[in-house]
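Need tokens for this chain, all 97 residues.
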Amino acid sequence: MNVKEALQVLESAAASGSEDIKSIFSSDYQNLMKTIMKSAPNLAWEKVKNAKEAAVDYTIDKTEVLNKCVHEHPWYYIGGAAFISVGIGFLLGRSMK
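Here are the structure tokens for all 97 residues:
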């Protein structure tokens, strides 16, 4: 008997309206739902932990690269910060009039 035949047998048994079969299926379904609901929060929590660890690792890697670049070329970053500050100051001073 293959899976298709087994499903046909189950479908015909369910269609016959037997209360015993319906109660067996409903109780099995309830057990399955309880099992899934018990394990779902743990799975979600593990995924959140993994995502947090990946984000922290990524941030640390990028800050180390940025720190190295700033130490190698400090005047580029000082000039960029000054340029942005002058631009924001100009825009804010212009809107005050």
